[in-house]
Write a structure and sequence with these properties.
Helix content is 42%, strand content 15%. With 413 residues, it is an alpha/beta fold. The chain has a five-stranded parallel sheet, sandwiched between helices. Strand 10, helix 7 (254-269) and strand 11 (274-280) form a beta-alpha-beta unit. Helix 4 (134-146) crosses helix 6, helix 6 (228-240) packs across helix 7 and helix 11 (356-367) packs parallel to helix 13 (396-408). The mean pLDDT is 95. It binds 5'-O-(N-(L-cysteinyl)-sulfamoyl)adenosine (5CA) and zinc ion.
Length: 413
């Protein structure tokens, strides 16, 4: 599938270091990514039926920052993102609105690309939909079946295929939830713990046999379509290989999605799926998680149509730390617009204070658990001091402009 065009990223003078992110299990930070060479990243993409809301944008900006930090450390990045272009919620929305599911997906994916481009989000190297990836998905299912790790549910009408997740080494270690929490999360996030005929409530659907009125494709498992988790497992393994550096998404994907992906992959490769998992906190509106199913959305395209500068939208999102839940209010955008105007004034003025310590502070903030919020404050201080400075440090304004562009993705000119 076509990705979107890449924004220019200035190269800054190299400053050694590493990216460290906070793990789920402790307060300590873990180095994420290789020391040399290519960092491999997979981020779970949209289900294209109502994109792109500010929650989506927050998640993709989080992993955009990760890539900018890696690049700034001198690493290359190989990045895969999927599109869940066939799944229950998409089909339900298509039926409810009388639109063909393919058309719905295409138009939402186009809008998503436009939004990502406007927000200057780095595009994936591999942007892959499910429909175009049935080959690798079937190949992975075949490997699982050959290893004795698939079964058909005991159901006369629809004996769909399931993956016995507990047979995977390390199952449960990604999310670290207890049994009750796993069942609850599974039920809430697309699972079917109570379906009769399963061997274990947590086993996950990997191939759903054809139903009347639903799209389906021929396969060695009968005509049907893939379950949700197997898509990301297959696409990540196929494009990045096992034990890649970072699996990302929003925190709603921790369980079951990322747990099941890890289980499916480890079961066939014997290796970890990803070395590290990071999750962006949920963005809410009026105290509730922003979600397509609840309909409480603010769309990036809506704000753009109303005349918001995409750089202000980007700054509004960057003002929040990726692990802290927050709710969008119109004030977020107003404050970001003011901040953007102040920064633009400071980089086009005729005076400025030294930029080197600020660039160092921005780098430090981002490298230590992606604190874009702190990076913005450091830049605010530079701007304030520059606006009242009486002399000009040569090159300082250009240095700030490049650093803000390279590290935060904000174009000031
Ligand atoms: N297609 C699947 C992933 S394989 C999916 O979850 N699609 S989605 O369209 O529902 O979400 C796309 C991405 O945005 C996911 O990474 C999800 O975790 C993230 N996301 C969804 N809602 C929010 C929200 N309110 N705040 C932050 N991130 C969100
Ligand atoms: Zn996914």
């Amino acid at each position: 599938m076509r990705s979107w065009s890449e924004p220019s990223v200035p190269t800054l003078p190299l400053a050694p270091g590493e990216l460290r992110l906070q793990g789920r299990d402790s307060d300590s930070l873990h180095a994420v990514g290789p020391q040399h060479g290519t960092a491999r990243l997979y981020v779970c993409g949209i289900t294209p039926y109502d994109a792109t809301h500010l929650g989506h944008a927050f998640t993709y900006l989080t992993f955009d920052l990760v890539q900018r930090v890696w690049r700034d450390l001198g690493l290359a990045v190989e990045y895969t993102q999927n599109v869940t272009d066939v799944d229950d919620p998409l089909l339900e929305r298509a039926t409810a609105t009388g639109v063909d599911w393919r058309e719905l997906a295409h138009s939402e994916i186009d809008l998503f690309r436009e939004d990502m481009e406007a927000l200057r989000v780095l595009p994936p190297d591999h942007y892959l939909g499910v429909v175009e990836s049935l080959g690798p998905i079937e190949a992975l299912l075949t490997r699982l079946r050959d290893a004795g790790l698939l079964y058909q549910v005991d159901d006369d009408e629809y004996p769909d295929w399931y993956f016995p997740c507990r047979q995977a080494p390390g199952f449960g270690s990604v999310a670290g939830l207890d049994e009750t929490a796993m069942i609850a999360e599974f039920a809430e996030h697309g699972g079917d713990p109570r379906r009769p005929g399963k061997r274990d409530p947590l086993d996950c659907l990997v191939w759903r046999l054809e139903r009347d009125g639903e799209p389906s494709w021929p396969s060695a498992f009968g005509p049907g379509r893939p379950g949700w988790h197997i898509e990301c497992t297959a696409l990540a393994l196929d494009t990045l290989g096992a034990a890649f550096d970072l699996q990302g998404g929003g925190s709603d994907l921790l369980f079951p999605h990322h747990e099941m992906c890890a289980a499916e992959a480890t079961a066939v490769t014997g290796e970890p799926f990803a070395h590290f998992y990071a999750h962006a906190a949920m963005v809410g509106l009026d105290g509730e998680k922003m979600s397509k199913s609840k309909g409480n959305l603010v769309l990036v395209s809506q704000l753009r149509r109303q005349g918001a500068d995409p750089m202000a939208i980007r700054l509004a999102l960057l003002a929040h730390h990726y692990r802290t839940e927050w709710s969008w209010t119109p004030t977020d955008l107003v404050q970001a617009e003011e901040r953007l105007a102040r920064w633009r004034k400071a980089v086009t003025g005729s005076v400025s204070v030294d930029a080197a310590p600020v660039v160092e502070a921005v780098r430090r903030s981002l490298r230590e658990d992606l604190h874009a919020d702190d990076a913005l404050v450091a830049l605010d201080h530079w701007g304030e001091r520059s606006l009242v400075s009486s002399d000009d440090v040569p090159g300082a304004r250009a240095m700030i402009r490049d650093a803000v562009d390279a590290l935060l993705g904000i174009a000031l000119s």
